[in-house]
Design goal:
The structure is a single chain. This protein is 41% helix and 21% strand. The chain is of the alpha/beta class and 369 residues long. The chain has 2 domains: 209 residues, Isopropylmalate Dehydrogenase (3-Layer(aba) Sandwich); 129 residues, 3-Layer(aba) Sandwich (Isopropylmalate Dehydrogenase). Strands 2-1-3-12-11-4-5-10-8-9 form a 10-stranded mixed β-sheet, sandwiched between helices. A hairpin with a 5-residue loop joins strand 11 and strand 12. Helix 1 crosses helix 10, helix 1 runs parallel beside helix 12 and helix 6 crosses helix 7. It is globular. The structure holds nicotinamide-adenine-dinucleotide. The site of nicotinamide-adenine-dinucleotide has 23 residues, from helix 4.
């Protein structure tokens, strides 16, 4: 049998530093768990611009379309700020998302016990929290036409954006949410504003249709997105999977992220339609950017990128038990007080370097194998 394939794109700033730790972990799974990947590495963002004059070469795009999953570090940095819009590092990432048609963005909000005190909410509200926000990523108000700023009839101007969803756009992201729920606590909460938006009524009806016809075994509830925001900070543990549109998902996933402490801990996945082998097109990446303020200093927290690889194990490679193993190793290390400088420090312990955090996670993995 062929090994599953992985395209690794470290990118810019702290991207290569955190990805170096992920690469060691990928090798650990090959050596110790017999889980070997065919790994190719390539350039994205400013690093690709420096070599190819574009933030994503066509050859890299072809590889991304061919592999089972793409793992990306981060792109961007002050060196590239003055570049024309079309070749800015972020365009490389956007091209990947667009051409792979990654319509479902998965943002878990998981609060490791050892970090519960770093949340802005009370410990008992967030300790043990584990929710998943599924945001529609390629349609809705960020893409709908007409859009623009136009003169109005009174000598002023009017700014227009259009919220637009089709049946299939809603159904396909709903299916991703229901599939995820079946691997978790089997509950989906769909959020929209059906009380004031027709697109919200359509959203609610189509999610209900997918439920009734394809996933009747999953518990489905509906909530208005504003009430959902309130509930997320009041008692987030009531949720398992939340599915919502592009705009509300943008806001709600950031709210949920802050429940859990540091940007350096947050992974994400963006999934598309299933490929011939049944696996979805997939891009895994930390939520954070290239952090130029700490790049090259060994201060970056590699956990978000490592946890993104754990998501790849779970959602692209059907290795849920190995993903659990990796997440538990991260949790163990945090529990031992190993912390990069972005995390709340444990008294009497010196902050860990990026490499030190990687070493500690590998050691914790060794204890499980
Ligand atoms: P950022 O996420 O890079 O950094 C925000 C703050 O969080 C910084 O103080 C940084 O030091 C800290 N931080 C981020 N990740 C960390 C980690 N793993 N460990 C420890 N500390 C961490 O956001 P920014 O400063 O607004 O943007 C910097 C650059 O990254 C810009 O060029 C921006 O366009 C780009 N960016 C890229 C992505 C991406 O690649 N997906 C996302 C956001 C921003």
């Amino acid at each position: 049998m062929q090994n599953p394939s992985l395209l690794v794109l470290p990118g810019d700033g702290i991207g290569p530093e955190v990805m170096a730790e992920v690469t060691r972990i990928i090798e650990w799974f090959g050596d110790r768990r017999g889980l070997r990947f065919d790994v190719e590495e390539d350039l994205v963002g400013g690093a690709a611009y420096d070599v190819h004059g574009v933030p994503l070469a066509d050859s890299t795009m072809e590889k991304a379309q061919r592999v089972d999953a793409v793992l990306l570090g981060a792109v961007g940095g002050p060196k590239y700020d003055a570049l024309p819009f079309e070749v800015k590092p972020e365009r490389g990432l956007l091209r990947l998302r667009k051409e792979m048609d990654l319509f479902a963005n998965l943002r878990p909000a998981q609060c490791f016990d050892a970090l519960a005190d770093a949340s802005s909410l009370k410990r008992d509200v967030v300790a043990g929290l584990d929710i998943m926000i599924v945001r529609e990523l390629t349609s809705g108000i960020y893409f709908g036409e007409p859009r623009g700023i136009f003169p109005d009839n009174e000598g002023g101007r009017v700014g227009i954006n259009t919220q637009r969803y089709t049946t299939e756009e809603v159904r396909r992201v709903a299916r991703v949410a229901f599939e995820l729920a079946r691997r978790r606590q089997n509950r989906v909460c769909s959020m929209e504003k059906a009380n004031v938006m027709e697109s919200g009524i359509l959203w609610r009806e189509e999610v209900q249709w997918v439920h009734d016809n394809e996933y009747p075994d999953v518990e489905l509830s509906h909530m208005y997105a504003d009430a959902g925001g309130m509930q997320l900070v009041r008692w987030p543990k009531q949720f398992d999977v939340i599915v919502t549109d592009n705009l509300f998902g943008d806001l709600l996933s950031d709210v949920a992220a802050m429940l859990t402490g540091s940007l350096g801990m947050l992974p994400s996945a963006s999934l598309g339609a299933p490929m011939e082998n049944g696996r979805p097109k997939a891009l895994y990446e930390p939520v954070h950017g290239s952090a130029p303020d700490i790049a090259g200093q060994g201060k970056a927290n590699p956990c978000a990128c490592i946890l993104s690889f754990a998501m790849a194990l779970r959602y692209s490679f059907d290795q849920g038990a190995e993903a659990d193993r990796l997440e538990r190793a991260v949790e163990t290390v945090l529990g031992r007080g190993v912390r990069t400088p972005d995390l709340m420090q444990v008294e009497g312990k010196a902050p860990a370097t990026t490499r030190g955090m990687g070493d500690a996670i590998l050691a914790a993995l060794d204890e499980t194998a």
